[in-house]
Amino acid sequence: MISSSKIPDNERRVAWRLSQLLVLGALFVLVSSFWNTEDSEQTLEVNPPIASESSTTTAASDEVNEPDDVRSFTFAASGEILVHEFVADAARSSDGNSWDFNYMFESVQQVLVRADLSICHLETPLSENNSSLSYYPNFEVPYELANAISSAGYDGCSVASNHSLDTGIDGISSTLGHLQGAGIQTAGMTIEDAEPEASLFEVNGITVAHFSVTDTLNGSSLPTNPPWLVSDLDIGRIILDAQNIRSSGAEFVVVSVHWGEEYISDLSDHQQETVTALLDSEHIDLIIGHGTHVPQSVLVHNEKYAVAGLGNFLSNQPGDERRRCSECPPATQDGMILWLEIEENAEGKIAVVEASYYPTWVDRTNYEIVLSDFRDLAKDIDHQKLLASVQRTANVVEPLLTRATSLPSD
Fold first, then answer.
1. Taking the mean position of all CA atoms in its chain, how far away is CA 303?
2. Domain-by-domain residue ranges, the chain?
3. CB-based contacts of 181: which residues, under 8 Å, 6+ apart?
4. What is the per-residue pLDDT for 188?
5. Contact assessment for residue 238 and residue 195, using Cβ atoms and an 8 Å cutoff
6. What's the pLDDT band for 25 if we cut at 50, 70, 90?
7. Positive or negative CA dihedral for 178, 227, 124, 188?
8. Continuous H helices in 73-167
9. Beta carbons of 304 and 326 less than 8 angstroms apart
10. Which CATH number fits domain 72-403: 3.40.640.10, 3.60.21.10, 2.60.120.620, 2.30.30.90?
11. Cα–Cα separations (whole angstroms), residue 247 to 60, 188, 195, 231
12. How many angstroms from the chain centroid is the CA of residue 382?
């Protein structure tokens, strides 16, 4: 049978205390859990991610400090285009009635067409109708050359040279007519009763003026008679003309000069003195030279460039079995394309900021102008001669010009 005896009072008091302690412990645990959760939520609210805050600030800063677009353009100039008889023969059609020089420029075209402004130097007068062609010592070459010059990517040409009057006033007229008819601006000769004017080009919002002068003239003296036929190297007049063209809105002035001692890479005292005089003028920004048939040294004066000789771009020098030029060194096959980056500086002045070049070489098996560092390796070219040409040019123009290592972008 089951016993039903009574629990003593002191044991009941102990049990009551224990139950109170258990309840208080449970309440403590519950309250602590609640406060920990609330603190965590408050931390997330008052401390947003630092990265997000920084990102927003940077974007705002970029928007505020974004610079205005800087006006700039790229400029290309090449050496002497001197069409000897063998060059013309290579361009002549099978029926003998026309001439196509376009393929000779195919390699270099990939540079010339990418420049914002490309300038050539045409040394030989163009025939009016190819009825009386001649090559040496007085030149009158096929007029189709003008279309090849245009197709190659040129915008203008300097035409003042020692051969400017080889065929008289008629030669000047036909040369200017064919070039201008092909869309090429000309500088250095005129048949008008006025001084030859500069060519003007609008390039990316910048007005560029191009003058052309010569310091020598075959079979005649300078200035010509009448004096306005061919522009000569008169330093005072060139500076005055540059000043006048600037007052009319030109912002960058280029002077092409036909000068120098043939086949000599070093500059004469006369050339150096002329460079100093011209570049001392605030109105002249760049000098490019031709006439010696070999690349010549580069000068920098008043932070402005004088690339005194760009060499032969297209010619038959140093000659062949029909007409060998005994005094012509191997460097007469060498030339270059000058490549300049030109932009507006902080003072608002348009200036050259980077100067480089592409060495060229005339392949006299077909008279293609070879872009030496970007040649078609599949073509049958004497690579040792090509490498020697590149080194000769580098020895003359570096380090003031940097050899280009890639083709310009479109």
1. 17
2. 72-403
3. 146
4. 96
5. no
6. low
7. negative
8. 85-91, 106-112, 145-152
9. no
10. 3.60.21.10
11. 42, 20, 17, 21
12. 28
